[in-house]
Hints:
Elements: H1 2-15, E1 18-19, E2 23-26, E3 31-34, E4 48-53, E5 57-59, H2 65-71, E6 73-76, E7 79-82, E8 91-97, E9 104-111, H3 116-122, E10 123-129, E11 134-136, E12 151-160, E13 163-164, E14 170-172, E15 180-184, E16 193-203, E17 206-219, E18 228-231, E19 236-240, E20 246-253, E21 259-265, E22 268-269, E23 278-285, E24 288-295, H4 300-303, E25 306-313, E26 316-327, H5 334-350, H6 352-368, E27 384-390, H7 399-412, E28 417-419, H8 420-423, H9 430-439, E29 443-449, H10 457-469, E30 473-479, H11 480-484, H12 492-500, E31 502-506, H13 517-525, H14 544-547
Amino acid sequence: xxxxxxxxxxxxxxxxxxxxxxxxxxxxxxxxxxxxxxxxxxxxxxxxxxxxxxxxxxxxxxxxxxxxxxxxxxxxxxxxxxxxxxxxxxxxxxxxxxxxxxxxxxxxxxxxxxxxxxxxxxxxxxxxxxxxxxxxxxxxxxxxxxxxxxxxxxxxxxxxxxxxxxxxxxxxxxxxxxxxxxxxxxxxxxxxxxxxxxxxxxxxxxxxxxxxxxxxxxxxxxxxxxxxxxxxxxxxxxxxxxxxxxxxxxxxxxxxxxxxxxxxxxxxxxxxxxxxxxxxxxxxxxxxxxxxxxxxxxxxxxxxxxxxxxxxxxxxxxxxxxxxxxxxxxxxxxxxxxxxxxxxxxxxxxxxxxxxxxxxxxxxxxxxxxxxxxxxxxxxxxxxxxxxxxxxxxxxxxxxxxxxxxxxxxxxxxxxxxxxxxxxxxxxxxxxxxxxxxxxxxxxxxxxxxxxxxxxxxxxxxxxxxxxxxxxxxxxxxxxxxxxxxxxxxxxxxxxxxxxxxxxxxxxxxxxxxxxxxxxxxxxxxxxxxxxxxxxxxxxxxxxxxxx
Length: 548
């Protein structure tokens, strides 16, 4: 092993190549090597060259299909698939994209017995706490890409220390019946142990397997510490000199083994390699991680972009802060802007009628453009809790419109939502779980649906008294048809809630544009977002990073 690692460093120093992590695979199992693509290789479709340095140097790319089958391998685009690893596949591999591409090196170790060294390299560790829910996701490292022809996933099987797990402990990720996960609703010490998940793939009538080992450590005391970005603050403007070198640190506290902090520029990932004009690097020291955004030479183009530092963790939803750059000589432009705002406010005070007519637009302008958010925490975890009620007409939102409304509020406008069929903790009584959500939310939004997609007006009757007692802020969405019908057509509890809260009218397809009065009124009645760490009922995993 030491000889192989030493050889990789020698080869890399001679060729200026990139060294990738060693890959470990059990003899007889499938493994996939994937050639990375860098920005400078992305100018066109280029050929991937694979070379093996096992028993002797061998060019794998120019082998025929029959020769590849004889070796037990398949090359497709940037993937090298080894169907059943053996001692003949043990050794080093390299790949490059095109004749001028960066050469990447892999060290493949094929083992028969699991020594202590290999055990440390191949195990995935997870910590859960007693009396809380816990999920184990089967890793997806070095598995075939979905676009490789004739290779099909047939599912995942789970075992604990050699014994199959019961069906009631198996869950499905994102509704995928093949992507099974291990789920414990309430963890105790008996869940502690070593788990094995096996991914199976069908290729030309043969089944090939990849197994992964996960160690679940069950602890009794939950520290209840959550990852948080300490600096910079959201919407910070950094004043810089054009042509200068600038480094902006994003620091976050971490209390989980699985998590990362990284930078994006206008929703595109910033490169890690320092060959780019803008890149980032990161360091980790115990519970603190720092991602440093580096501008080699600040340009006019850099001033026009928004930069986001994003935090991903397996035990909570993602969080982020956004920053921008401004040239130093433009710093004084804030003075005339402030004067303009004072002038507008003065006109509004004199012209009350105009102020009343434009107050919604002005409020949203102050929130969106000037970042006027609430700076003090009220202890709430969500901006709003969405509940559905059955509309007495066909003008309500259907299931597709409901999901679309949720996505717009979360992804477009950045609200933190508690959604009944996603965030309510399983196992609790429905009324108790809903009251927990309302207690953690600053607002309750009642949504009319054409179908019964929520807990229903019966549950609203059960919790109505608690909502009134807590003085919960309510936003009641009505349909256009409800507006012209008699108020007595609604259930009594909805009549009371409609009078107690703010009403917004949904007018079908005319309400879908983001500039419509419906969205303006809804956002106006929602409270300003608070810049505080969010707490979700159910844990997330590191795989959410890939799906972002």
